[in-house]
Amino acid sequence: MLLALQETTLGYGILIVGLINLGFCGKEFRRNILLVYSAIALLGVTPFGTSIGLQHVTQMGFPLLLSVATPYLIAKYVYRNNLVSFPFNIHRIWRKKRIAYILFTLFLSYLILPFILRGTNSYLNWIIEPGFWNILTSYIGLNAVAAWEELFFITVVLAILRRHLPFWQANIGQAIMFASFLFGVGWIGWSFVVIFAFALSQGYIYQRTGSLAYVLAIHLSIDIFVHLSILELNHPGWVPIFIT
Hints:
8 helices; mainly alpha; globular
């Protein structure tokens, strides 16, 4: 509720019920899940949106930063368990199959993203005014949020959940939260299903590779066509390269 619909009353009510239930759980489980709860509570008061104005970027960006930094700092310096970490492992990207997968996702993104954004009218949630600076800042903002998504949902949420749950359950949990966040940002309608599948795949790939750099590379590559699709749908003829 807090992430997808930003229904604060109901959302925080559910969160409080969850906190009460944590009181009946084991100490390690309770304090680790509290890290996730605290981050969600912070996101609940974050104004989601796609505006590139300085005020909105600051109001949205600072809480997003805190939602990653707070669990990391508490886990590292208070719990001293290094549960939240950022294993980039860049060297694990440069394998033929992994590079081929990035190219495959680029091709798939080219084919389906315009269809998804048009079919759900999600593109209307991104208004990009003409001008080089507006186009550049919208692209930078899109990629900044994409990087945060991988940092938060993979290295914070998934890392914590898989400490206490089987991986498949932990991955479903982070994927639901991932898709809910993007629904709140602007990916509306049935695009939730596609985002959910993407989030599941990102969690699985991270589990297999242990490389944050690789899942970031995949996500940022896809966002090239997200941005180009939004430009073309908002301003037909600007990027006449799509066939869907």
